[in-house]
Amino acid sequence: MRVLKAAALAAMFVLCGGAAAPSDPPPKWAFAGMKPGPELAKDKLFSAPGSTLKVPGGKFADSAFIADWFPADHTPMPAVVGQGRKEKKLQPCALCHLATGAGGPDSAPLAGLSADYIVAQVEEFRSGRRACAGDCAKEMAGIAAALSPADLREAAAYFARQPYRSRMVVQEAAMVPKAELVWFAYMPVKGAGLEPIGARVLEMPADLNRYLMGDWRLPVTVYVPPGSIARGKTLARGGAGVMACAACHGADLKGAGSAPPLAGRSPSYLYRQLYNIQYGFRKGPAVAQMQPVVAHLNAKDRIALAAYLASVKN
C-alpha cells in the first residue's frame, strides 16, 4: 500500500513556501517523509499476525487493492473507501487512512471525527484553503476534486462510525536508535547504534513490511525529547499564555462540536497541522479560531504539544 503511494508521490514532494515566511523552516522529520519503502517480493505471501488473509506481494502494486486484514475491526467498507473509483482514477480512501480510519504519521486519523467535519475538510482541500508547507496536501487536493458529493458523504459517514484506537506508546528518550525515514515513519538501521533525539519526534512502527502493508494493529513506538510531555501538558492546559486545548476540543481532548479530537493522535501529523495553521498554509473559517492560539509557538512548543497530545489515552 505505502510502497505504491510513496513511489507515486516521492518525486513531487519538494519543500516550498506558499504563505507568510516562517521564522523557523518546516523540519525534515515532519514534512519530508515521502521516501519510498522497499518493494515487497511479488511472489511471496504476506500476512498480518492474527489474520487469516494471505496476500502475494505483487498485489500491493495495485492502487485499488486494500488488504482487509481484520474485517471484524470495522463496519463494511463502501466502494469509495475499499476500492476507489477506477473510472476517475480515484484511489480508495483506505489506501492512506486505512480501513479503520486509524491513519498514521503520513495521513489524518479519520476515525472518531464527525461526518460534517470530514466533509468540511475535504471542501477545504478542494477550495485550496487547506494546504501544507510543501506538497503534502497535493494528493488530497486531487482526491477532493474527484470525489462526488455522494461518495464524500458516504465515506465521511463510514469513518465517523469507526472508533479510534491509538496503537502508539509514547516514550521520552535522550538517545534513540539511528533510523531512516520511510514514508513519514522511522525505521531503525540495523547495527547502527544510538544517536541523540534532538528536536524531533520519531514514530517507529514495529515492523516495516506490516507498516507498508497497512496493518492497523501494528504497534508504534513514539520517541519524544525528555521533558516534552510535561511541557506539552502545561501548554495544553493554558500555561505560557496559550489557550487551553480543552476550551474547544473537550475536557478529555476527544473532540467537541466542530473541534476535532486530539487525544492519542499521531504527533507527526499534529505537528504539521500546528505549523501549517501558524504560518497560514491552512486558512479559512475552519481554523480561524486556532490561528491566534498558535501564533507565538516555537518549534519546541509544537513538539511538546504534539508529544503530550499523542500520550493522552483516547
From TrEMBL:
This is Cytochrome c553. The keyword Metal-binding applies. Transmembrane segments: none annotated. Keywords: Electron transport, Heme, Iron, Metal-binding, Signal, Transport. GO terms for molecular function: electron transfer activity; heme binding; metal ion binding. It comes from the Bacteria. Residues 1-21 form the signal peptide. Pfam families: Cytochrom_C. It comes from Rhizomicrobium palustre. The keyword Chaperone does not apply. Residues 79-163, 227-313 form the Cytochrome c domain. The lineage of its organism: Bacteria, Pseudomonadati, Pseudomonadota, Alphaproteobacteria, Micropepsales. Gene3D superfamilies: Cytochrome c-like domain (1.10.760.10).
